[in-house]
Amino acid sequence: MSLVIENLSKKYTKEKFGLQNYSITIEKGILGLLGPNGAGKSTLMKIIATISQPTSGSLTLDGHDLVKEPNYIRKVLGYLPQDFGVYPNLNAYEFLEYIAAMKGVGGPSLKARIEMLLEGVNLIEVAKRPIGTYSGGMKQRIGIAQALLNDPKVLIFDEPTVGLDPEERVRFRNLISDLAHDCIIILSSHIVSDIETIADEVAIMKGGLLITKGSQHDVIKKVEGKVFETLIDNSLLDEFKRTNHVVNTIRQKDKTRVRYISDQPVAESTSYQASLEDAYLFLTKATA
Amino acid sequence: MKHLITIIKGDYLQRTRSYAFLVTLAITLYMAYTFVPPVDANYTTVRIGNYVGDYNSAWIGHVTAMMTSVFLTLIGFFLINNSVKKDVETEVGMIIATTRVSNFNYLMSKVLSNFFVLLSIVGIVLFMSILVFFLRSKDFPFEITQFILPYVVVTLPSMFFVSCVAVVAEVFLGRRSVIQYILFFALFNIVMANVQMKQGTEMLTYFDPFGVKVVTLQMEDFVNAHYREEVSVASMGFVFSDEKMISRCLFLKAFIGLSFLL
Ligand SMILES: Nc1ncnc2c1ncn2[C@@H]1O[C@H](COP(=O)(O)OP(=O)(O)O)[C@@H](O)[C@H]1O
Ligand SMILES: [Mg+2]
User: Fold this and answer.
1) Where are the domains of chain B?
2) Which of A32, A105, A111, B55 could form a disulfide with B137, with the two C-beta atoms 3.0–4.6 Å apart?
3) What ipTM, to 2 d.p.?
4) What tens digit of pLDDT does each residue of A92-101 get?
5) Alpha-carbon distance values, B3 to A205, A229, B84 (Å)
6) A2-221 domain in CATH 3.40.50.300?
7) Residue with the nearest Cα to atom 17 of ligand 1?
8) CATH 3.40.50.300 domain residues, chain A
9) If you measure from the C-alpha of residue A158 to the centroid of ligand 2, how many angstroms do you get, rounded to a whole number?
10) A28: which residues sit within 8 A by CB, 6+ positions away?
C-alpha cells in the first residue's frame, strides 16, 4: 500500500496557506508528523481523510485519486480528528455501534470488536455511562476506539495523546503497535517524545512545508556531531542565544547550562549524542 | 438497511435523552390536556360553525389528534430542526464525514429519527387523550379504534411532513436557524389560514399537510346533514369567548366517519 501526495496545496484565504507544495510518499508503517502549532499537520490529515479538498496537487492511494474517489480510502480509513465530538447522551457501546453503522460495519463480530477496543483503551468499566460524563482523556480514548472500529488499513490520528496521562500513552502505543502490521499509520504531534518512541519514520513540517522526512536515525543524523553543551554566565546568555542555535537551557545559580547546535562550538563545550528533539528544534527554528 | 436502523437508533436515543425533548413533551402533554375543554370552559378548540361535538370517543379522538397534529408540528419543529446542525456543532460530523455513508442515507436517517422522536411524543399524547376521555366523558362508551385511527390518519402524516421539512430547511439554509424558524412559522400560518377558510374559497384547496381539513370537511358535512345547517367554516385553535356559546347545546351525536379514507 502506498499513499502518494504530490505538490499538494491548501489555500484558506488569499494569503493564508495551510499547506504549500507538499509532496510525500507514505508506505506501510508508522509515520510521525512533527511540527509546531500551525504547521499544517491537521490540514494534511483532513485532506487525506477526505473531509477537506486540496486547492491544487494530487493524492492517490495505490493509484486511486482520492479527490475523485474518496470512498476508496474511506472504506479502509480510521480517523481521529484533532477536534471531534460525541453524542453525550449515549454510552460508549451505543456511540460505537452508531459510528460502526455509519462506517458500514456490523454483523455478529461487531459486539466482540467493540468489547476488545473498549478493553484496549481501558474504558470497559465506564462503558455503560453516558459519554457526556467522561473526562477529556476518556473522550479522547473513545475517539481512538471509534477510529479502529472498521479494522482500518489507513489510520490517521491527529494529536492522539492530548489529554492522556503517561500510563494511557503507553497503552495507546501498545495498541497501535499491535495494529501496525500491514497498515499505514500517521500520527501527529508537536511533542517529540510522543512520536519518537513509536514512529518508524518522522516528517517534520512547519508553515505548511515539509522540512524533512526519513527514519528517526536519518533525521537525527542531520545534527549529529553538532550538539554541544556548555556553561555560560547568565549575563551573557541573551547574547549567546542570539548568535547560537540554543535548544535547551538549565539554570544553575549564576550560570546556565546551555545545549546548542553548531558547526563551530565555543571553547569549553562538550559534545553530546544528538536526539530527535535536537534535530526537530534545529530544523524548525532554522527555517524561521 | 440494518445499518440505517442502527444509525436511527443512535440518533433517536441521543435526542430523546435530552432536556429539549422532555420540555417539548411536557408542553405537548399540557396542551393535550386543554384540547378537550371542560363543558363550562370559556374557550373552544375545534368548532364547526357554532357546533362542537359531544364528548364521545370519536369526537375526543379526532379533536385531540387534529390539535396534536397542528401544535406538535409547530413546537416539534423547534425540537427537531437541529439534527444536522448538532452534528456540525458537536463535531461528530468530523467523524461521520469520513465514513462511507451517503448523503442521502444520512439525511434519510435524520428524517426518520426526527419522525420517531415526534412519534414518541404522539404516543404519549394519545395515551393522555384517553385519560382525558375518562375525565371529561361520562355517558359514552370507550372505543379504542376511535382514538387510534385519527392519530394514524391525521397526526402521523403531518409528523412525517414536518420531519422532512426540518431536514430540508437545514440542508438549504444550513445554520441560519432564525430564518428557518421564521419561514416555518410563515408556512405554518399559511397552512392554518388555508385550513380554516370557508369551503370553496381556500387559496390552495388541496394543501393540507396537517391532515385536518379532511376531518373538518367531514364534520361540516355531518352537521349540515343532521342539523339542516349551511356550515362552511371550521375553526381550530384556542378560541376564547366571554359570551356563552350559543351552540353548546347542539352536540354531534354520531361517529365522525373516516369515509374519506375509502
Ligand atoms: N479553516 C481554516 N481557515 C483559515 N485558516 C486555517 C483554517 N484551518 C487552519 N488554518 C490555518 O492553516 C495553518 C495550518 O493549520 P493546521 O493544519 O491546523 O496546523 P497544525 O495542525 O499543524 O497545528 C494555520 O496557520 C492555521 O491558522
Ligand atoms: Mg492540528
Assistant:
1) 2-261
2) B55
3) 0.83
4) 999 999 999 9
5) 40, 60, 18
6) yes
7) A40
8) 2-221
9) 7
10) A1, A182, A183, A184
